[in-house]
# Entry
Amino acid sequence: QVQLVESGGGLVQPGGSLRLSCAASGFTLDYDAIGWFRQVPGKEREGVSCISSHDGNTYYTDSVKGRFTISRDNASDTVYLQMNSLTPEDTAVYFCATDTAALCKDSYNLQVYLYDFWGQGTQVTVSS
# Structure
Protein backbone atom coordinates (compact mmCIF):
# COMPACT_ATOMS: atom_id res chain seq x y z
CA GLN A 1 0.00 0.00 0.00
CA VAL A 2 1.39 3.37 -1.04
CA GLN A 3 1.13 5.89 1.75
CA LEU A 4 2.80 8.57 3.80
CA VAL A 5 2.43 8.20 7.52
CA GLU A 6 3.08 11.01 9.97
CA SER A 7 3.78 10.30 13.61
CA GLY A 8 5.23 11.96 16.67
CA GLY A 9 2.50 14.45 17.43
CA GLY A 10 1.04 14.91 20.87
CA LEU A 11 0.51 17.28 23.75
CA VAL A 12 3.47 19.34 24.91
CA GLN A 13 3.91 22.30 27.21
CA PRO A 14 5.02 25.68 25.86
CA GLY A 15 8.77 25.70 25.42
CA GLY A 16 8.85 21.97 24.85
CA SER A 17 9.94 19.91 21.86
CA LEU A 18 8.54 17.27 19.57
CA ARG A 19 9.98 15.39 16.62
CA LEU A 20 7.59 14.52 13.84
CA SER A 21 8.30 11.71 11.40
CA CYS A 22 7.00 11.22 7.89
CA ALA A 23 7.54 7.69 6.64
CA ALA A 24 6.89 6.46 3.13
CA SER A 25 5.41 3.05 2.60
CA GLY A 26 5.33 1.33 -0.77
CA PHE A 27 7.49 3.91 -2.54
CA THR A 28 10.74 5.81 -2.13
CA LEU A 29 11.16 9.44 -1.15
CA ASP A 30 14.59 9.64 -2.77
CA TYR A 31 13.51 11.73 -5.75
CA ASP A 32 10.90 14.01 -4.17
CA ALA A 33 11.03 17.20 -2.21
CA ILE A 34 9.15 16.84 1.03
CA GLY A 35 7.12 19.54 2.66
CA TRP A 36 5.66 19.90 6.12
CA PHE A 37 2.41 21.81 6.43
CA ARG A 38 0.03 22.59 9.24
CA GLN A 39 -3.60 23.47 9.52
CA VAL A 40 -5.93 24.69 12.23
CA PRO A 41 -9.72 24.53 11.94
CA GLY A 42 -11.12 27.35 9.87
CA LYS A 43 -7.79 28.34 8.37
CA GLU A 44 -5.94 27.46 5.21
CA ARG A 45 -3.18 24.90 5.24
CA GLU A 46 0.15 26.63 5.84
CA GLY A 47 3.56 25.61 4.57
CA VAL A 48 6.06 25.18 7.39
CA SER A 49 9.22 23.75 5.87
CA CYS A 50 10.55 21.82 2.91
CA ILE A 51 13.63 19.86 1.94
CA SER A 52 14.80 19.13 -1.58
CA SER A 53 15.74 15.70 -2.86
CA HIS A 54 19.09 16.13 -4.55
CA ASP A 55 21.02 18.66 -2.48
CA GLY A 56 19.14 18.61 0.81
CA ASN A 57 18.39 22.31 0.59
CA THR A 58 15.88 23.46 3.17
CA TYR A 59 13.49 26.34 3.66
CA TYR A 60 11.40 27.48 6.63
CA THR A 61 8.52 29.84 6.96
CA ASP A 62 9.45 32.85 9.08
CA SER A 63 7.43 31.87 12.12
CA VAL A 64 9.46 28.68 12.68
CA LYS A 65 12.94 29.75 11.62
CA GLY A 66 15.47 29.00 14.32
CA ARG A 67 13.07 26.67 16.12
CA PHE A 68 12.27 23.90 13.63
CA THR A 69 14.69 21.70 11.73
CA ILE A 70 13.79 19.47 8.80
CA SER A 71 15.94 16.51 7.83
CA ARG A 72 15.67 13.39 5.75
CA ASP A 73 17.00 9.87 5.87
CA ASN A 74 16.72 8.44 2.38
CA ALA A 75 17.88 5.03 3.54
CA SER A 76 14.71 4.67 5.59
CA ASP A 77 12.48 6.87 3.38
CA THR A 78 11.72 9.08 6.35
CA VAL A 79 11.66 12.83 6.80
CA TYR A 80 11.75 14.45 10.22
CA LEU A 81 10.66 17.77 11.64
CA GLN A 82 12.35 18.62 14.91
CA MET A 83 10.30 21.28 16.66
CA ASN A 84 11.78 23.17 19.59
CA SER A 85 10.61 26.10 21.71
CA LEU A 86 7.03 25.31 20.87
CA THR A 87 4.32 27.89 21.51
CA PRO A 88 0.52 27.60 21.57
CA GLU A 89 0.53 29.18 18.10
CA ASP A 90 2.19 26.01 16.79
CA THR A 91 -0.89 23.98 17.68
CA ALA A 92 -2.24 22.40 14.50
CA VAL A 93 -2.55 19.21 12.53
CA TYR A 94 0.77 18.68 10.79
CA PHE A 95 0.95 17.04 7.37
CA CYS A 96 3.80 15.92 5.17
CA ALA A 97 3.58 15.76 1.41
CA THR A 98 5.70 15.00 -1.65
CA ASP A 99 6.58 17.22 -4.59
CA THR A 100 7.96 15.36 -7.60
CA ALA A 101 9.58 18.56 -8.85
CA ALA A 102 11.99 17.86 -6.00
CA LEU A 103 12.84 21.51 -5.36
CA CYS A 104 13.01 23.52 -2.16
CA LYS A 105 14.40 27.01 -2.58
CA ASP A 106 12.06 29.60 -1.15
CA SER A 107 8.49 30.34 -0.10
CA TYR A 108 7.20 29.42 -3.55
CA ASN A 109 8.10 25.80 -2.84
CA LEU A 110 5.72 25.76 0.12
CA GLN A 111 2.64 26.30 -2.03
CA VAL A 112 0.11 23.59 -1.23
CA TYR A 113 -0.85 23.02 -4.86
CA LEU A 114 2.70 21.90 -5.75
CA TYR A 115 2.41 18.81 -3.57
CA ASP A 116 0.82 15.69 -4.97
CA PHE A 117 0.69 13.10 -2.25
CA TRP A 118 -0.25 13.71 1.37
CA GLY A 119 -0.24 11.91 4.65
CA GLN A 120 -3.19 11.83 7.01
CA GLY A 121 -1.72 14.26 9.52
CA THR A 122 -0.69 14.20 13.15
CA GLN A 123 -2.06 16.50 15.84
CA VAL A 124 0.31 18.77 17.74
CA THR A 125 -1.10 20.57 20.76
CA VAL A 126 0.97 23.06 22.73
CA SER A 127 -0.71 23.89 26.00
CA SER A 128 0.01 24.21 29.67
Notes: The longest strand covers residues 18-25. The CA atoms of residues 32 and 100 lie 5 Å apart. The chain has a mean pLDDT of 95.
